[in-house]
Amino acid sequence: MTSVSWAEILPTLLESKSTIIDASVFALTLTHVAMSQQDSYLLATSRQYYTTAIQKVCAYDRVINPHDFIHVAMILAMYELYTCVPGDIQSWIIHVSAACKFANQCRSSDLSLTGHDLYRLRTVAVSFSSLSIPSLLLLYVKL
Question: What is the model's pTM?
Answer without folding.
Answer: 0.67
